[in-house]
Amino acid sequence: MSVLVFAENFKGTVKKSAFEAVHYGHKLAAEMGTDCHAITVGSVSNVSDLGKYGASKIHQIASASTVDFDSQQFSKAIGTFAKNIGAKVIILSHSSQGKSLAGRLAIRLDAGLVTAVNQLPDVSDGFKVTKSLFSGKAISTYSMDSEVKVLSLIGNALAPEVVNAAGEVVPSDIELEASKLTVVETKTVEGTVPLPEAELVVSAGRGMKDPGNWGIIEELAETMGATTACSRPVADADWRPHHEHVGQTGVAIRPNLYIAIGISGAIQHLAGVNNSKVIVVINKDPEAPFFKAADYGVVGDLFDVVPRLNEAIKKAKAG
Amino acid sequence: MKLLVCISRTPETTAKISFTEDGKQFNSDGVQYIMNPYDEWYALVRAVEFKEQNGGEVTVIHVGESSSDIIIRKALSIGADKAVRVNANPSSSLFVAKQIANYASENPQDIIFFGKETIDYNGSEIGPMVTEMLDIPYISFASKLDKDGDAFLCERDIEGGVQALKVNAPFGISAAKGMAEQRIPNMKAIMMSKRKPLEVVEPVEVEAKVSIDQYELPAGKSGVKLIDPENMDELVQLLKDVEKVL
Ligand SMILES: Cc1cc2nc3c(=O)[nH]c(=O)nc-3n(C[C@H](O)[C@H](O)[C@H](O)COP(=O)(O)OP(=O)(O)OC[C@H]3O[C@@H](n4cnc5c(N)ncnc54)[C@H](O)[C@@H]3O)c2cc1C
Ligand SMILES: Nc1ncnc2c1ncn2[C@@H]1O[C@H](COP(=O)(O)O)[C@@H](O)[C@H]1O
Fold it and tell me: Is the pLDDT of residue A89 over 90?
């Protein structure tokens, strides 16, 4: 009986979401009176950091694969490993890898599955866990009765704390099967935190009038160290790249701070951002629906307000 | 080439979400249903384009009751050749996945298309489950799918970027934005869809492993605090000292 966390890495570095998952696994293991194991695939430089956040043992599967991630291949390897150590709960990040793996592992291990969980399970009476549904418009509590359970943890749901668990790193004798996929190319946006992982997000919409006006948004994002996002019509019109589109049909995010600039706050937009901890809305129309979902609102012309906000943040950072 | 597109039904995107008083059930009174946008706009349209370019047959499969026939007809009017409805309430992901895998193992497919996720339960669960049951590769959140000789070239969204991959059939793929453009069926296509076959089959049995105990609505925001647009220092101070997010 133990808790097993699949700790994702990106190009050999443990992802932020993996630290969150390990810390979640650690807390759950403590409640269940067991240990939290982590498993990684490939060579990972800062793998021992997983111990800091709660992994008592870190198992490394070596990989000489042509792909960095293949859900079919990983499901077999991690599924076998989970059976070997008798893992009762398997925890993944609710990320592109974790989402593709969660359903597969649930089938392989004949386990119950709840994806995108946002809190620690309640194990006082059975095993109950909550997640948000309807793009953040509802919350539901699930009961899991199966012997083995698979959970994927949504990003930014809990802040990993340093607990300094044993963190012993051991090579695993599990081998990856040959993958049926071959990677041709990986293109990443360098230098910025990907939207699903970002803690600070600056987002703009049609109120910007023209793609040539995005300079003030990029400046503000740079001053804050934030990632940029946009509303759907802006991405549809190719004013901004499509991976920036947030909302019900775009990326769903839950940063600590979301600043919405010149976005009206349509229900489909809110669906992707309403789990943000703090929402600031800048809009010249005091009737814009977004103000109802906001913590702080600024009624004004974004072309005046945004540069002013940028200066104020610079000043605060300098002082 | 045989292409199977899994389509689901979700409340229309602006639908007001509410539950029965005891919080046990979704309140569907007055709710309009649509085909899940990812399934319709991206998965189905790309499958139809594929058939138009390379030949083959597009089947749509849906697990649901007869009230879904209207969205199945829509899928046929967008260009699918035939439809299968597994006649059951889609009670869980596992249940739905089992029905689709069952159909696909009896009627082998080259590519099985899913949407990135359903916009109601936001699970992204069914594609991985079906492909595991069939033991075939699964390409998640693909924004591109093209034929490349005998193989297929896809691009999948990863955090902060995209990855181009090669894969051979059979495989499963989930469609994200970018894979195709939404199509509006014309009158002729709508008329023709009425003559296309819609087969209704009975489900295989599946034992549930999870159940929903309770639904709730999230606590709303307590109200917006308006800041003078001239005074951005105040906003920054609040974000820094009170909210501690800067
Ligand atoms: C099925 C479906 C799915 C959808 N999915 C999404 C989704 O995932 N994400 C999404 O974003 N949308 C989505 N939409 C679209 C959504 O309904 C809205 O149309 C869209 O969000 C509006 O974008 P916007 O706020 O940028 O533009 P608008 O609604 O045009 O709003 C622009 C805002 O800018 C303000 N403004 C203008 N000039 C200034 C100025 N100088 N200073 C300050 N403020 C200014 C205006 O007051 C206005 O409030 C979806 C729609 C459908 C039907
Ligand atoms: N009832 C259903 N019938 C057929 N396909 C479905 C059904 N529900 C979901 N799907 C497919 O599975 C995908 C992912 O759904 P989900 O796992 O619920 O996010 C959807 O985009 C559909 O392609």
Answer: yes
> Which whole-number Å values give the CA distances from A310 to A138, A206, A228, A257, in the listed order?
35, 20, 14, 15
What domain count does chain B have? 1
Residue A39 DSSP SS3? strand
How much is the pLDDT for B134? Answer: 98
- How would you write A228-282 as a 3-class SS string? EEECHHHHHCCCCCHHHEECCCCECCCCCEEEEECCCCCHHHHHHHCCCCEEEEE
Q: Counting ligands in written order, which one lies closest to the CA of residue B90?
A: 2
Q: Which tens digits make up the pLDDT trace of A252-273? A: 899 999 999 999 999 999 999 9
pLDDT tens digits, one per residue of A300-318? 999 999 999 999 999 999 9
Q: How far apart are CA B136 and CA B186, in angstroms?
A: 36
The C-alpha atoms of residue B106 and residue B108 are separated, in whole angstroms, by 6
Nearest residue to A58 (alpha-carbon basis) of A147, A196, A188, A171? A171
**Which pairing describes strands A278-283 and A257-261: parallel, antiparallel, or unpaired?**
parallel
In a domain, B58, yes or no: yes
- Helix, strand, coil content of chain B in percent (nearest 5): 30, 30, 40
The pick from B34, B36, B40, B119 for probing ligand 2's pocket by mutation, whose C-beta has the most ligand atoms within 8 angstroms, reads: B36
| Cα of A290 from ligand 1 centre, angstroms | 10
Measured from CB, residues less than 6 Å from any atom of ligand 1 are A 205-207, 231-234, 247-250, 262-264, 266, 268-269, 272, 283-285, 288, 301-303; B 13, 37
In this prediction the ipTM stands at 0.94
Q: Are the C-beta atoms of residues A123 and A140 closer than 8 Å to each other?
A: no
Structural domain of B74: 2-219
Catalogue all structural domains in chain A, each as residue range(s) with its CATH number: 3-171 (3.40.50.620), 195-318 (3.40.50.1220)
**Virtual torsion, Cα B158, B164, B165, B166, nearest 10 deg:** 160
Whether B121 shows a pLDDT value over 90: the answer reads: no
3-state class (DSSP) for residue B73: helix
User: Is residue B47, in this structure, part of any structural domain at all?
Assistant: yes
